[in-house]
Amino acid sequence: MKIRSNRWDDHYTRKAREENWLARSVYKLKEIDSKFRILRKGDRVLDLGCYPGSWSQYALKKVGPSGTVIGLDLVAPEGFFYPNFRFLGLDVFDVEPISLKEELGEVDVVLSDLAPSTTGVKNTDSARSMNLAAKAFEIAEAVLRGQGYFVCKVFEGEDMSRFRSLVSSRFGGARLLRPAATRKRSREVYLIGLGAVRSKVLPGNGECHPAGEPEQP
């Protein structure tokens, strides 16, 4: 009798089980980190959409006991107990970025593996993904310290180039990467913001200017 294979049980899934990672998605972050060196010992990291926990798990390994990882999601990673991990059970769209900064302080890295519930309709899924990416970017702008890093999952679509330009305007550089662990049929890519430019909000009008840039009278 022929046993039907699980189409999701691929090389990376099996490798994650063997290496005791919580999900195969860890290999996407590992590749990003290997290429751009975004995580360092002692860093404070905010992981948006942290469930099932493999990105937080990897980040904790990289930042070490002197670092901190804050995970934010509707569901907490299962069996996840680390002294330097904090979980916030929130819907990302309910997060007020300034209030979050007041509660957490600044962080060195913002990770976002947020993904929408897909419909199979390309334009709809891309729009939902972009809404999540825009929210993640809004949070990153508020909480990242100068020269911090931003990693964000986005579905390829019409608004990709516009979003990349937006990120480029607030970081020293912006790179796109499709990690090897991404499933073949997936349209997801990762946008990496390198070296955040700290900004300040001008009272009364909400306009942002890079720190150190003179304000216009």
Explain this structure to me?
This protein is an alpha/beta fold. It has one domain (28-147, 162-198): 3-Layer(aba) Sandwich (Rossmann fold), CATH 3.40.50.150. Helix content is 32%, strand content 26%. The protein has 6 helices and 9 strands. It has helices at 11-18, 26-36, 54-63, 97-104, 122-143, 160-170, and strands at 44-48, 68-73, 85-89, 107-112, 144-155, 171-177, 188-196, 199-201, 208-210. It has a 7-stranded mixed beta sheet, sandwiched between helices. Strand 1, helix 3 (54-63) and strand 2 form a beta-alpha-beta unit. The model is unreliable at 1-5 and 200-217 (pLDDT under 50).
Secondary structure blueprint with pairings:
Elements: H1 11-18, H2 26-36, E1 44-48, H3 54-63, E2 68-73, E3 85-89, H4 97-104, E4 107-112, H5 122-143, E5 144-155, H6 160-170, E6 171-177, E7 188-196, E8 199-201, E9 208-210
Parallel strand pairs: 1-2, 1-4, 2-3, 4-5
Antiparallel strand pairs: 5-7, 6-7, 8-9
Helix pairs in contact: 4-5, 5-6
In the CATH hierarchy, what is the superfamily? Vaccinia Virus protein VP39
The count of strands amounts to 9
Task: Say what the CATH topology is.
Answer: Rossmann fold
Q: Count structural domains.
A: 1
Mass-distribution shape: globular
Please state the structural category: alpha/beta
Task: Order the strands across the largest sheet as they lie in space.
Answer: 3-2-1-4-5-7-6
